[in-house]
Amino acid sequence: MPHPTPLTDLQFHALLPYILPRSPAGRQIGDLRTRMDAIFHVASGTGPWCALPERFGRPDTVSRYFRRLTRAGLWEKLLNAIKDLSPNHPLRQIAPLIFRACRRAVRILGLGFIALVRRLRLLQALPGPPAKVADPDLSENLRFRTPLPGADALLAASGREAADMLRRLRTLHRRAAGLRCLPRALRLGWS
């Protein structure tokens, strides 16, 4: 994906209620629009924060602001908002950028965030293909579809049947866990 164009006035004003205007020390943050443009610039590429162009400011400042926004719950709030908005809302126009930033935020937020993304059915925000990313809700989804054998059935089964049941349970466990580490090529191919 090419680097995004700067946010329009309409897009920025739609994003403004969700972002932090002050630092933890209470100081007003300089140019919020430039910081958000910088975050979306890095999120839409594959490079590290230190590759951020000079026009966006210091890379460590922008990455620190990204981490603060992430810990403050910005990406969860935006995903919840995007889910409920009309298709022509300005936040919907920048949804692909928000999804890319969410992919970076997964590293900080972890499995709970992946579960939220799956529950909202905004799979574009996952850091890789859905079949390769952990699925914490898989047991809840499959509980109604696939009857699992009980312990009595497993003990009463013959050696071959028991091995087959254990193989199916192992496959289910692997599917719920996803890949331990997504290869870079797989992550980049998904974006």
Binned, the helix content reads: 55-70%
Write down the oligomeric state. Answer: single chain
Amino- and carboxy-terminal Cα gap: 8 Å
Q: What does the average pLDDT come to?
A: 83
Total count of helical runs of at least 4 residues:
11
β-sheet strand percentage = under 5%
Total domain units: 2
Spans of at least 5 consecutive residues with low confidence: none
By secondary-structure content and strand pairing, the structural class works out as mainly alpha
How does this structure look, described?
With 191 residues, the protein is mainly α. It has 2 domains: 1-126, no CATH class; 128-191, no CATH class. Helices cover 58% and strands 0% of the residues. It is built from 11 helices and no strands. The chain has helices at 9-15, 32-44, 59-71, 74-84, 90-93, 95-109, 111-120, 138-143, 151-156, 159-177, 184-190. α2 (32-44) crosses α3 (59-71), α2 (32-44) packs across α6 and α4 (74-84) packs parallel to α7. The longest helix has 19 residues, at 159-177. It is elongated and about 70 Å long. The protein starts with 8 loop residues before the first helix and ends with a helix. The model has no long low-confidence stretch (mean pLDDT 83).
